[in-house]
Write a structure and sequence with these properties.
This protein is of the alpha/beta class. It is 52% helix and 14% strand. It has a 5-stranded mixed beta sheet. Strands 9-10-8-11 form a 4-stranded mixed beta sheet.
């Protein structure tokens, strides 16, 4: 009888241990670094195009999905032009997806102020070498409180490279411009010979602001003045900013851009440039990956890259590029528990070392240190990366302005291209930014 009792006790103990082990395996086991608990996870992003960077990011998301069969992943790729509005709509109802791509600057700041974000600092704590390997300033626009980061950039947002076709410059004996005077001389010479001087596709009106005005205006006003104006300590109606807008108008009046520039998009402008119809294009790092995906080796061979020319007498430094940390993936404040753990794993899968390498090899700029000489990138990418390493970085306007003010200057540049008054555009910008600083 005693032996039977002992056997029963032992059997119960074994069953208990087995049940505990099964419970532990279903709740806390790992699969490629993530929990095996079944979770539903949503991610929104704007990498919807056919360019190499978009494909690389979607590939990273697909790889995560493959490696984590326990995660039911709802991934939505939303076109760039409609992404901001779509995200703003769900933000108004506090219905953010678990993980979403967010732009560094005013957009991420507004989401933080609205209490819609939670930090991804646990990733930095778990992977300290990863965090340390980012370039200086990478987290500046994602640190809303000391010791906490709310995203990790998956790109270097350099927005104002001056791309030029050296064959056209040599054919018409034009000097690659390093000053505004040389630029205007180049504009005249190319127009005289039936070549569009500068390709521009401003149908989505952020293009002229992001690629041209940020660098152009900084060369006139200097960075310090702009940052004061953003905070309300200077005014966009000041003469120095009117002078900056006048430089943009000078390009318009001298037919620097092709006819109908407000009616074609940035991709169409890139194709117009690479086909040899324009001598120059002022655009961001995204053009590197777009051209790598669409242009032939023969088309790419004559393309060189530099910075916009200096403006004589301006307060800003020459040889700079507007830009900074690109966007990154953020975590919704409402995401908790096992879903939060899965979301953090997904963010690391995209922005960790392997993700950064995949994005760099799509010929897209990153703020992560790596040996690019051994990376699978194009010669033009390496040239642009070296230009960026030597250049100072100045603000992109819509990364610092409020959303309303960003829209005001975007639309204002279109108005100038259609004959609008500089003073009216400046006042609309000032009024919009003043409303944001008074809130």
């Amino acid at each position: 009888m005693k032996k039977r009792f002992t056997w029963v006790v032992t059997l119960i103990a074994l069953i208990s241990l087995l049940a505990a082990a099964c419970s532990s395996g279903s709740d806390t086991g790992s699969n490629e670094g993530g929990s095996t608990e079944k979770v539903k996870l949503t991610i929104w992003h704007n990498f919807a195009g056919d360019d190499l960077r978009a494909k690389a990011v979607r590939g990273l998301i697909d790889e995560y999905k493959k490696n984590n069969p326990n995660v039911e992943l709802d991934a939505q790729a939303i076109p760039v032009d409609g992404y901001r509005q779509r995200l703003s709509t769900v933000a108004a109802g506090n219905e953010m997806p678990d993980v979403f791509f967010v732009y560094a600057g005013s957009q991420s700041q507004e989401f933080y102020d609205a209490g819609l974000l939670q930090p991804i600092t646990p990733l930095a704590e778990e992977y300290p070498d990863w965090k340390a390997n980012f370039m200086d300033g990478a987290f500046d626009r994602f640190e809303f409180e000391e010791g906490q980061i709310y995203s990790a950039p998956v790109g270097l947002s350099a927005t104002s490279f001056l791309y030029y076709n050296k064959d056209l410059f040599e054919r018409y004996n034009v000097t690659v411009p390093t000053t505004w005077t040389e630029l205007m001389t180049a504009v005249k010479t190319f127009n005289d010979n039936g070549i569009t001087p500068i390709a521009l596709g401003n149908k989505a009106p952020w293009v002229a602001q992001s690629t041209i005005l940020g660098s152009l205006a900084d060369r006139v006003t200097g960075t310090e003045w702009f940052l004061k104006a953003v905070k309300g300590e200077a005014s966009f109606t000041d003469q120095v900013f009117i002078d900056a807008l006048a430089k943009f108008k000078e390009l318009v009046d001298n037919k620097a851009f092709q006819e109908g520039a407000n009616s074609i998009d940035n991709t169409q402008a890139e194709q117009y440039f690479i086909q040899g119809n324009a001598a120059m294009m002022i655009s961001g790092a995204w053009t590197l990956t777009n051209l790598a995906a669409s242009a032939t080796d023969e088309q790419m061979a004559p393309i060189e890259v530099t910075t916009m020319p200096a403006i004589e007498g301006g307060a800003g430094a020459p040889g700079t590029i507007s830009g900074g940390a690109g966007g990154g993936f953020a975590l919704s404040k409402n995401t908790e528990g096992a879903v939060k753990e899965a979301a953090l794993d997904l963010i690391y899968a995209i922005s960790g070392p392997d993700g950064q390498k995949a994005i760099a090899e799509s010929n897209s700029m990153v703020m992560y240190k790596m040996d690019l000489e051994n990376a699978n990138v194009s010669p033009l990418y390496l040239k642009a990366f070296n230009v960026a390493k030597e250049a100072g970085i100045t603000p992109v306007y819509d990364a610092y302005l409020s959303a309303e003010a960003g829209e005001a200057i975007n639309n204002g540049l279109q108005e100038i291209m259609m004959g609008g008054k500089l003073e009216d555009v400046a006042k609309k910008l000032q009024d919009a930014q003043a409303r944001s600083t008074q809130q």
